[in-house]
Amino acid sequence: PLVVAGDGPERAKLEKIAAQEGGRWTSFLGEVSEEIAGDLLERCRAFVFCAEEDFGIAPIEANAHGAPVVGLARGALVETMVPGATAVFFDEPDVEKLQRAIRQAWERSWVERDIRENARQYSADAFRRGFAAQVSRALSLTGG
Q1: Higher confidence at residue 61 or residue 143?
Q2: Torsions phi, psi for 107 (to 5 deg)
Q3: CB neighbours (10 Å) of residue 62?
Q4: How far, in Å, CA of 73 to CA of 93, rounded?
Q5: By C-alpha distance, which of 25, 18, 34 is closest to 5?
Q6: What digits encode the pLDDT tens for the residues 21-54?
Q7: Residue 70 bridge partners (DSSP)
Q8: Distance from chain centroid for Cα 33
Q9: What 3-state DSSP class applies to 74?
Q10: pLDDT level of residue 63 (50, 70, 90 thresholds)
């Protein structure tokens, strides 16, 4: 089954398409709490991400919960995901290419530890450590 969590301007259109296709495999949850989102990410076989973002946090959250990402190879996704280790990419927003990528994700074995480790490099602690290191470096260069 496909579970769509969240809301957006395309929701009504997508619900109509799903209903025309029989709708039995797709459910739309709308906005969900952080707790429910976390539970969905813990239980999913893959997180599908078709957007082009400067920095999409949702795929990293999916990795933090151990879920591999199936994503459009655009934007920051190609910088934050590791093909074959944390994600499967498809190169164009095309139904057949998306389907192929989903099949690839389902057919392979994933190392959950590696997927979660990818997300750790974007954690608040990692940011603080990196920021502090850069400030220290800048201060040492200026003699401060």
Answers
A1: 61
A2: -85, -15
A3: 29
A4: 9
A5: 34
A6: 877 889 999 999 999 999 999 999 999 999 888 7
A7: 48, 88
A8: 17
A9: coil
A10: very high
pTM of the model: 0.83
In this structure, what are the phi and psi dihedrals at residue 63, rounded to the nearest 5 degrees? Answer: -60, -40
List residues bridging with 80 in a β-sheet.
none
CA–CA separation, 116 and 65 (whole Å): 7
What Rg do the C-alpha atoms of the chain give, in angstroms?
Answer: 18
pLDDT in tens, 87-110: 999 999 999 999 999 999 999 999
Token pair in block for residue 59? 């795929």
Nearest to 68 by CA among 5, 117, 127, 126: 117
What's the DSSP call for residue 7? -
DSSP 85: T
